[in-house]
Amino acid sequence: QVQLAESGGGLVQAGGSLRLSCALSGRTFATYAMGWFRQAPGKERVFVAAVSRGGSTPNYADSVKGRFTMSRDDAKKTVYLQMNSLKPEDTAVYYCNANSLIVSLTTKGDYWGQGIQVTVSS
After folding, report:
1. Does an H or E element contain 103, and which?
2. In what order do the strands lie in the sheet with 68-73?
3. Contact, 96 vs 112, CB < 8 A?
4. Closest CA to 4 of 113, 86, 82
5. If 50 and its partner were Cys, which of 28, 93, 103, 109 is the partner (CB 3.0–4.6 Å)?
6. How many CB atoms lie under 10 A from the CB of residue 55?
7. Which pLDDT belongs to residue 29?
8. CB atoms within 10 A of CB 9
9. How many CB atoms lie under 10 A from the CB of residue 46?
10. Could you list the mean pLDDT of each consecutive 10-residue stretch along the chain, which spans 122 residues?
């Protein structure tokens, strides 16, 4: 059974930065593609970023390209989402996702973290 635990959220002013972390336990981390999704109040959960099992160049939603950077550390069984130049519209609950195949704009895995709040004030 895969378990995901996010950390690092909080409140930040517009233009600031936060780094989210997601640690995987219960299985071999290197065999999972990992992704981040977010859900704003009253809206659907949407794709933010993903990285493959091999750690190739991450994919990003257009709304975060150039501002967010996703990375993975297989030794620590953790993925990170570095968020810079944050905007109020980035306010959402951020969820970590794991899939044994791929994670993308259209493909999600069965495993989710509990979610973590990110609030960007104007």
Report:
1. none
2. 3-7, 18-25, 78-83, 68-73
3. yes
4. 113
5. 103
6. 15
7. 84
8. 19
9. 13
10. 94 98 90 96 96 88 98 94 98 96 88 97 96
DSSP reduced 3-state for 105 = coil
- Give the tokens for residue 41: 């109040």
The two structure tokens encoding residue 79: 């993925």
**Using alpha carbons only, what angle is made at residue 9 by residues 39 and 36, rounded to the nearest 5 degrees?**
45
115: left (phi over 0), alpha (psi -120 to 50) or beta: left
Each residue's pLDDT tens digit, 32-55: 999 999 999 999 999 999 999 887
Q: Give the residue from 104, 13, 107, 95 showing the smallest Cα distance to 51.
A: 104
For residue 9, which amino acid is it? G
